[in-house]
Amino acid sequence: MVTTKPTDQLDILTALEQEFTSEKIAPLRRAAEGYSGPSLTQHLIRSALGRVDESETYWTDVAARVLLAQLYRDQQERRGNEDVYSDFARHVRTQVEAGFYAPALTEQYTDRELDEIGTFLDPSRDRLFTYTGLKTLTDRYVATDFNKQRVELPQERWLVIAMTLMRNETEDRLGKINEAYWALSNLYMTVATPTLANAGKPHGQLSSCFIDTVDDSLQGIYDSNTDIANLSKYGGGIGVYMGKVRSRGAAIRGFKGASSGVLPWIKQLNNTAVSVDQLGQRQGAVAVYLDVWHKDILTFLDLKLNNGDERLRAHDIFTGVCLPDLFMEQVEARGEWHLFDPHEVRAVMGWSLEDFYDESFGAGSFRERYADCVAHPDIHSEKVPAIDIMKRIMRSQLETGVPFMFYRDEVNRMNPNKHEGIIYSSNLCSEIAQNMSATSASQEVLEDGVIVSRRTPGDFVVCNLSSINLGKAVPAGVLGRLIDIQVRMLDNVIDLNQIPVLQAQVTNRRYRGIGLGTFGWHHLLAQKSIQWESEEAVEFADKLYEDIAYYTIRASAKLAGEKGGYPLFSGSDWQTGAFFERRGYKGERWEALREKVGQSGVRNGYMMAVAPNSSTSVIAGSTASIDPVFKPFYHEEKKDYKLPVVAPDLDHRTYDIYRRSAYIVDQRWSVRQNAARQRHIDQSISFNLYVPNTIRASVLLDLHLQAWKSGLKTTYYTRSTASDIEECEWCES
Fold first, then answer.
1. What separation in angstroms does the CA of 504 have from each of 135, 436, 461, 571, 668?
2. Does the annotation mark 535 as catalytic?
3. Higher pLDDT, 498 or 705
4. How does pLDDT run across 651-692, given as a tens digit for each residue?
5. From 156, 431, 533, 546, the catalytic residue
6. What residues contact 730, with CB distance under 8 A and at least 6 apart?
7. Do 496 and 194 form a contact (C-beta atoms < 8 A)?
8. 463 is catalytic
9. Nearest to 266 by CA among 211, 311, 201
10. Of the listed 270, 417, 427, 464, which one is catalytic?
11. What is the distance between the alpha carbons of residues 296 and 17, in angstroms, rounded to a whole number?
């Protein structure tokens, strides 16, 4: 077994033989001949990875142990300690003094507490990592010095995150730190990437992404761009709703035809995303959403295409389209669709069309207001066949993967906080659905000549995310215990975060929204020998996510009893019980929970959202989100070598489940599974459609219609691939 006290590079081979047997490691010992020093480690890793195949996946674990030994050796030399995990308190003080940890770690914890916290460390949990997981964590997320040299080991990263998120707890603080460390270090859960990267460090915020609503004014547009730049600087991904901005040819101060529409402002956002990167690590990420009834929608849908007029393109942003039920009905009926200028609608009608939605399926305020706009003689609409717009949507999806689909009526019908506002769009990854509104600004000159700028904050949405590793937590039977600590960690992010856009801080505290999600769904199905394309999988999704919803709401209600509910609880679906009624929750446990929520409230106005979490699922050694695997086994091309990618726990028992992989599995079953889990998720789910690029338009259209009719709130990427797909019978039907 690899220890934390490596003294000689060849000791690793002896340790590997003890763990994996001499017979299994013999090829590696032979390969080591003639190598020494740092080159030996790299040679052993590549030799191990080169031996990975579907029948001998243990070589990935061998590579992980070699990498781990190298990490220990580097820190042994840096710290001068034989056992690198031996003195956590000293490690924390050293890194704070050097400026690599935040001062709060020593200001808010005594030396005695640091000593006790250090006893929580369990170095053996480093062996839970796969090679790719360990390398991803240590290359991207552990603390480094100014020369990008690591100063932190994996278990220290988990413990520092736990200390950071629990530092303001008043009762049994160390016990809560130990519980959070248990959840993280056993890989039962992961925190969002910004929390993983920044918690305990002196710079950076902890939330994943944000959603802004752009006001229809020059001041509002430029203020939003500045806010987006500031968030991008600190690692946030941003969703931007542009549906209130007037269309091309609209009037400005009564001058007809003066407006150039949303395109110039979107191109400006595109430039912001590229130029304001995240300390050179990656460029910013912005998704722009527009209503399907907006007059600029056709130009918008072509923004990312690879051909056409480059002056009408914005290749570095992502697009999303907001779709009411009425539009989908018109697509299915091959009916007409009308496009409007939102500014003209406000000026003529005295209200905004985007502020309404259908309260029930097939009837409601939106379609009534839409009909009023169509009939009004002073509203100049453009009439287009609805199916033509849908064709443009699908063409862009097959070429670029976007636009994302946002089914706005279903989102707002199921919004637990509809008493306080409306949801116009989603975020960069299409899983967040929270109330939104634009920020307004004004200025005045005081008597002493000082100019005062005032901003009335709108609801600027913040996404605070973490995810359950279904492949580990469910088999371990720890969901209830895990979700209790997970919700507390997420809730603490709200108070600890220093968001550079102040209206986002205001919204964060009004709703205290969190997004507890999951990954490892395909991994869990493989462990339980449940075929993806089966009623059993649909029923399992329904039952499992009902349990997750129950534990999450229960945890938030417990926190409300301890710390108080979120400020806007009164009048919400949580308070009235409509949340439980709409989802058909019955039985003794649900009745008891509903009563508790009615009495003590809930801490969080929004609670659940399933994010893509592709990088964090790699760290935790499981499958991404609710997606099927790309393939059971394949090689990923790197700069000068091939990295084997193996489905978790791949063996003769699980291969048949993984064999039906992303581009083979019938997507209609994926939609059914997602509809089953969506019932229990108060926000939404990053749900990808995997299709061949040869798919017939009618089949792709049927998928979208099925998703809409099934009650899905959003769909994320439409991922198409080359036509060499085996066994893709469903897409021909």
1. 34, 11, 6, 23, 38
2. no
3. 705
4. 999 999 999 999 999 999 999 999 999 999 999 999 999 999
5. 431
6. 666, 667, 668
7. no
8. no
9. 311
10. 427
11. 65
